[in-house]
Amino acid sequence: MRIEQLEYIEAVTRLGSLRRAAEALHISQPALSETVRNLERELGVDLLDRRRSGAKISAEGRELLPHIVGVLDAVDRLRRAADDQHRTSRTLRLGTVNAATVPLLVPTIREFRAAHPETQIEVIGAQQADIHRELLEGGLDLGLVNYLEGDDKPTGLHTTELLRGRPVACVRTDSPLAAQRTVSVADLLAQPLIVMRSGYVMHRYVHRLLEGRSPTFSYSTDGAEMGKLMVAEGLGTTILPDFSVSGDPLERSGLITHRPLAIQDTAVLLVLQRPLSGPTPTASRALHEIFVKSARTYAHTTASRADES
């Protein structure tokens, strides 16, 4: 039994004759009649009442018609659901905290787009708590999130560690701090400091690092990218994971650099998270794999640059 056989019966019933059904379906009347005969032989029921004046649905066919219509309705619902799923799978929503490294994110998206040109990627900057909520509620497919070493991970999410780095002082290249091998807490307190807004991991880290003491002046900004731009404009120093600065376009252009902190008390992790429950779209799995590969390449390149310097 084929779906078009049922569709032909429905058309004959709706239009009242084989001729009008054949015209509406853009097939020949003999082909339509033969297709219906094959179905009749399979079911053992005469679905059409054939006379010299034409063929119409038979009494037996009318009794079976609700079942035929039910099957066609179910097929239609299946097709609509498949279309919706296809449209949904053509857009991936990636949430990222703003301290996620641009040198990792951009090459990953570029490689993914080359392999999956039909799939759109929407990159959404947000705080960690918002990304967790959206992942669990289905608003995001993947999330790039930072943790301090030892932080608890939320339940309901699969977590893959991509990069492990250290907090560093991000400074303008002509800053006096750029001439130092390390930057101390006293150095940070003595000049303007650009601090991530509350809700970011690096805000929590800086608060712990300074032990409640305040710098001479401070700015509060929403994410690392704005923080790095403010450093490049000479407004002060900011504290970021080293992987957020190494290889950044502003660093490659010579506007900013970074120096280790004199106190190396913890590591910062960049992880990729996805929901544990529910199906994982093929495109989402592909993007996940490219992130893991790109992270290995980035870590190797960064280590090689450090060895050379």
Overview of the structural elements:
This protein is an alpha/beta fold and 309 residues long. It has helices spanning 3-15, 18-25, 29-43, 59-89, 102-115, 128-137, 185-189, 201-210, 224-232, 249-252, 282-308; strands at 48-51, 54-57, 91-96, 120-125, 142-148, 157-165, 167-172, 193-196, 218-221, 237-241, 256-260, 268-275. The strands form three sheets. A five-stranded mixed sheet has the order 4-3-5-12-6, with helices on both faces. It has a five-stranded mixed sheet with strand order 9-8-10-7-11. Helix 1 crosses helix 3 (29-43), helix 1 (3-15) crosses helix 4 and helix 5 crosses helix 11. The longest helix has 31 residues, at 59-89.
- Which regions contain 5 or more consecutive residues with pLDDT less than 50? none
Major sheet strand order: 4-3-5-12-6
> Percent of residues in helical segments?
40-55%
Q: In terms of structural class, how would the helical and strand content be classed?
A: alpha/beta
What Rg is obtained from the alpha carbons, in whole angstroms? 32 Å
Supply the number of helical segments.
11
Q: Into which percentage range does the β-strand content fall? A: 15-25%
Number of strands: 12
Biggest sheet details: 5 strands, mixed
- What characteristic shape results from the CA principal axes? rod-shaped
